[in-house]
Amino acid sequence: MLLIGPPGAGKGTQAHALSDALGVPAISTGDIFRDNVRNETELGRQAKAYMDAGDNVPDSLTNDLVRDRLGQDDCAGGFLLDGYPRTTDQVRALDEFLAGQGASMDAVIELVADPDVVVERLRKRALDQGRADDDESVVRHRLTVYREQTAPLIDVYAQRGLLSQVDGIGEIDQVTERIRSALAERGIRVPA
Ligand code: ADP
Fold first, then answer.
1. Which CATH fold topology does 2-185 show?
2. 27: burial class by Cβ within 10 Å (0-12, 13-18, 19+)?
3. Where along the chain is AMP bound (predicted)?
């Protein structure tokens, strides 16, 4: 399953809640990149400049990373992706990976959030967590990158009949409930 939506829509928060309830790992490419930057790995070194600028890390690097991660044992029973795929090339790579495993996607949840609201949320997160890419001009750029490169994927998944749109504005638990109902409509039960 995938969670898709603009920066600040709450993908990471909801991915954690769902991952606990479903008992499958939540995989956030953003978190993996940040860990690598913190630990000063070669991957982190390559990704850092893109992240600081609010640009996508190149597809080849990102796709290799995700293929490795999804190939690990804990993903055998399913997984929840947060922040991937973000480009059409990443969709292609994920499709290829899943086909190779004889697996397929069950659902794509779009967390819908107004740009003004996400800018405000990220302003708060910048104060709390000090993420360099939450600086206001970088946030605006991330939103542009989202609009240009990622938003088009929503149509791709809608055409495949996989997309459920969920309002991402509201209390965290309320949004989780909305996702739960959207999944229930697809016959996917999320234990409480
Ligand atoms: P957000 O969704 O709030 O932008 P993320 O934690 O998902 O935050 O991503 C932070 C940064 O990590 C992105 O701006 C980008 O540089 C990099 N990144 C994360 N996921 C991907 C991806 N799938 N492809 C390319 N770059 C990515």
1. Rossmann fold (3.40.50)
2. buried
3. 29, 34, 83-86, 90, 131, 142
